[in-house]
Structures are given as structure tokens and as C-alpha cells.
Amino acid sequence: MSHIQFDHVIHHIENLDNFNYPGDILALTKGGKHQNLGTYNVLSHIDLRYIEYLDVYNMKKLKEVSKTEEQKHSFAATLVHESFSQGFKRLCFRTDDIEQLKEEMLAEGLIVTGPLEMSRVSNKGQKITWKLLYINDKNFNSKLPFFIQWDQPESERQALLEDKFQKHLSISAIKIESPERDKIVKNWQKWFKMTFISENDDVSVLETADGIQFEITDAKVHKITTVVLKDKNIEAPFLIRVRAGNYRFEPYNS
């Protein structure tokens, strides 16, 4: 059985070149270009988990690739499918065996694309490579998470990125609204080996093996609404709304 843990969430920001996080509460690092997709990113590394801020530098290329069989379920194509609205767009889970994961997803009856070889070139000219796997379910209307396997060992990535980590912070939860709450609760336990934590009339809570909780509530439209972060430097919670996405900061002991 493949191991799955939370890797990152994607937040689309228009005019990303001019974006600064309000109050510099989150530190941002320039990423690079996905040259085969026409997108580019800026990253906020919490630890090995991060928030990816994404925008478009080549609209023509992105619209073309989003129509292909290989990329129509991709994170970049989501921007096209959602008319380039800002906000959180996709979740990505990390795996250490993407080929095994592919077989597991096929066994569940899911439509699978990949693994796809991916790369971007950093601003320092460094080529970073990874593999992506996309899944789709014809009986599921909401955009599903996708999977990443980094080509560098985790220990090397840790050493390379550690000076960018915001060690007073940790991602603790993701909040999702969906018209398919029951399907998410059932299928994400089965597909992604999440643990059922609790449920009431208002919210269902699942948890990944690495301790990230997913709080799912009912709504007419599926969307990722909020990233919850624990912060060692605060004594009271607060919420910031940034480009159609909510960030809730909570004291570590709450």
C-alpha cells in the first residue's frame, strides 16, 4: 500500500508578480515557470508542506494544453475550467510510490492520467523535477486532489528548503464546502486511507496519516475555502481573507 500525506494547496492569484501577503504574515519565495503549461508560481514553505500561489504567463499555451487528454484534469487546467477566478483551486497529496498508487487508484475504478514527468526552472536556473498523477471519477462532480512524487529524496528536499521553513507555523486543517459531502467522506477514506474523526449536521472531519484534518461542510458549489495554521507567536485566533481564500491563524495550544 502506498503512503499518502498532504503536500500543498494551490491558490490562484492574479498579477502574482505584484503580490505580497498582507502584513508579510506568510513569507513568500519565488518559484519558477512550468514551461509546458504556461504557468508560474510563488511558494510559502511552512515545512515540507506549502502553499503554492499560481498565475499564468502564457495564456495561449495554457488554454491549448488544458484541452489535451494529458492535461485536462491538471492543476493548471483548473484555472481555465473555473474562468480564472481567484482562490484556492486544488489539493495535492505526496506519495513515495506513484506507480503503486496508480495501480491502487485503477483498482478503485478511477480514471487515471499519468504519472506525468514535470519540471520547472527556478529563478536561479535550477531544474526541479517531479511526477504527477491525476485521478477522476465520472460519478464525482468535484475536482479531486492529485498526487506528487518528488524526484529528490525527502532528506535532500529538507536540507535544501529548511532555511525557508516558517518554523513557528504548521498547517493543521483545510476547510472544504461541497454538495457531495457524503461522497467525499466515504470515498476519501477508501481512496486516500483517511481516518474518520467526527461528524454532525454541520461538518464531517477526516484526517490524513500525517495529521492534517479536512473539515467538509454542505454547500451548493464545491470549493476549498480555508487553510488553518497553528502559530506559536500568537495568543488569540484571527482570520485573513486573501484573494477569495481564507487563512485562519490559531494559537498552538488551541
Automatic annotation (TrEMBL):
Domain of life: Bacteria
Pfam families for the chain: Glyoxalase_3
Glyoxalase-like domain span: 6-192
InterPro entries: Glyas_Bleomycin-R_OHBP_Dase, Glyoxalase-like_dom
Protein name, entry field: Glyoxalase-like domain-containing protein
